[in-house]
Amino acid sequence: MNDLDIPIFKKSYDLYKEFYALRLAVPKQDRYTLWQKCESLLIEVLEGILFASQQSKSEKLPTLEKTSVKLNFLRVCIRLMKDIKAIDAKKYIIIEANLDEIGRMLGGWIKSTRER
Fold first, then answer.
1. Cα(first)–Cα(last) distance of the chain, in Å?
2. Are 64 and 12 in contact (CB under 8 A)?
3. Which candidate, 82, 65, 74, 83, places its Cα nearest to that of 37?
4. In this predicted model, what pLDDT tens digit does every residue of 24-39 receive, in sequence order?
5. How many structural domains does the chain have?
6. What mean pLDDT comes out for the span 69-94?
7. CA geometry: angle at 41 spanning 36 and 46, to 5°?
8. How far is CA 65 from CA 68, 77, 82, 101, in A?
9. What's 56's domain CATH number?
């Protein structure tokens, strides 16, 4: 199986594409600060997932846990973007639902890695 076919990677990849499409809707003052931080975190989450998928079982857990922390910080930043009205509530709800699903998938992967 190709690493790019992993459901959590596909979900994160699609979320990035969706998030990227919001760029021009974000006010310029926020685009180069908070939006850019969110974009970086999202890329780091993608990188962590891909990296973990190619690691041995013993190396995988620390990478997944680090990725989970980045995902949680991304959630906080996205919520902050909504609260300062850099993104509208409708977009926030869509992004948050995707983040929740990615979080559940990541949590399941962490749990199954711990149990091995």
1. 21
2. no
3. 74
4. 999 999 999 999 999 9
5. 1
6. 97
7. 125
8. 5, 19, 26, 16
9. 1.20.1440.60
